[in-house]
Design brief:
By secondary structure, the chain is of the alpha+beta class. The chain contains twelve helices and eight strands. Helix 7 packs antiparallel against helix 9.
Length: 308
């Protein structure tokens, strides 16, 4: 299932808190006593300072939409602490919260925030989800003001490591990693469906012959969803058909426990890298540069990403 991720502002913040309220009382309140429920009301639902911090941008909250329906929210306090995360009960285990998390991490990367770790106080219900994402507990479960939680951290390598592929490319240069492009394509597809453009194209095809190819155009928009990589090659490709999904170079490096192809003594003679040069002409230059100056200093010296 594909979700549209939006930064929530204005009236959307009210919808986010309403979702948090509904999910908490339906799904999580049974885990807490009266004291915990009272604390949630006081600190989250009825706390003007908490709300104001989102309005002023001190904290931020994102939402995952299925069509125009808000199905999941996740909030950041400052730049590195997850302070709010709720998903509609009927949409849990559908990938919405995971998509939110990875979109937020990607946004932090685009902003140049080289954050080495993210933190969260995971509720008993949320603990399995955060373990699945790669968080680890930093201590036993605690109970403060009736709220039970486990403190957790999500360790992250440097931005250069995360965005450098195993074969020596930069994820930010790659078309499947252009998140803005795929957000626009998804928004266009949804809007065309909303206005019924398929029927309009069929009616107008006699006067606008290219409209007779509308099925092909729609198929391309759908196929774009499969190519989009929501996270980097290093973090594990998240796409159905992105190039990194079945990359032999990535698999080879992982099998040999290598940091990347530049650490392999045979990369200059590798047939698979030679094949990559048909699309990425400067890949050997990149690998030599990484080997010479290191992964944290090579980016400014990288060559062309594509031949075109």
């Amino acid at each position: 299932m594909v979700f549209e991720i939006r930064l929530l502002q204005g009236e959307a913040l009210d919808a986010a808190l309403a979702l948090a309220r509904d999910v908490f009382f339906e799904f999580e309140a049974p885990e807490y006593g009266p004291q915990g429920i009272s604390a949630f009301r006081r600190d989250i639902l009825e706390n003007p300072r908490f709300y104001q911090a989102f309005l002023e941008g001190e904290n931020r909250i994102w939402g995952a939409y299925c069509g125009e329906t808000l199905v999941s929210i996740m909030g950041l306090q400052g730049a590195c602490h997850i302070c709010l995360s709720f998903t509609r009960v009927d949409m849990q285990r559908q990938g919405a919260a995971s998509a939110l998390f990875h979109a937020i991490v990607a946004q932090l990367d685009r902003e140049g925030a080289d954050i080495t770790q993210l933190s969260v106080n995971a509720s008993p219900c949320g603990l399995p989800f955060y373990l699945h994402l790669g968080f680890y507990p930093t201590g036993p479960e605690q109970c403060v003001n009736g709220i039970r939680f486990t403190p957790m951290l999500y360790p992250r390598p440097s931005s250069s490591r995360r965005n450098t592929t195993y074969c020596g490319l930069w994820c930010g240069d790659c078309i499947p990693g252009d998140h803005a492009l795929f957000a626009l394509a998804q928004a266009l597809k949804q809007r065309l469906e909303q206005v019924g453009f398929r029927h309009y194209a069929a009616y107008k095809a006699a006067k606008v012959p290219s409209f007779s190819d509308y099925d092909t155009f729609e198929a391309v928009l759908t196929a774009l969803e499969d190519v989009h990589c929501a996270r980097t090659c290093y973090e594990g490709p998240l796409s159905k058909a992105g190039c990194a999904q079945d990359c032999h170079l990535r698999s080879c490096a992982l099998e040999k426990s290598l940091y990347g192809c530049w650490a392999c003594p045979d990369f200059e003679r590798c047939a698979q890298i030679a094949d990559m040069q048909q699309l990425h002409p400067d890949i050997l230059h990149n690998l030599r540069t990484i080997r010479r100056v290191g992964i944290d200093r090579w980016v400014g010296q990288r060559g062309r990403h594509y031949r075109f």
